[in-house]
Amino acid sequence: MRRDQSVRLEPGDADTAPGPESPVAYGLDTRRVSASALRRFGDLYLQEMVIAVVALAMILFFTVDSPDFFTTSNAAALASFIAPIAFFALAEVPILILGEIDLSVGEVYVLSPFLVEHLNNAGTPVPLAIVFTMALCAVIGWVNGLITVKLHLPSFITTLGMTFALEGIILIGSNGAPANPVGDGTLALVLGGGVWAEAYWAVGVMTILFVMLRRTSFGLHIIAVGGNAESSKESGLKVDSIKIWCFVLCSFVGGLIGILDGYHIGSIDPDTPGLTFMFYGVAAAVIGGTALTGGRGTMIGAAIGAIALGTLEDGFHVISVSSFAYDLILGIAILITMFLNVQIERATIRGAGRGSVARLIGFIFNRRKEPVRR
Amino acid sequence: MMPRTEVTDRSDVEDMLRIEEISMSFGAVTVLRNVNLHLRRGEILGLVGDNGAGKSTLVKIITGYHKPDGGRVYLDGEEVRLRSVQDGREHGIETVFQDLALVNELSVFHNLFLNREHTGGGWFKLLRNKSMRAAARRCLDEMAVDIPSIDVPVAKLSGGQRQAIAVARATRQKDIKILLLDEPLAAMGAKETALIINLIKGLCRSTGISVIIIDHNYAHLFDICDRINVIQQGQVTLDADLSEISLEELIELMVQSRRCELSKYLPGDQVSAETVINPQANGGSR
Question: Do B117 and A220 touch (CB under 8 A)?
Answer without folding.
Answer: yes
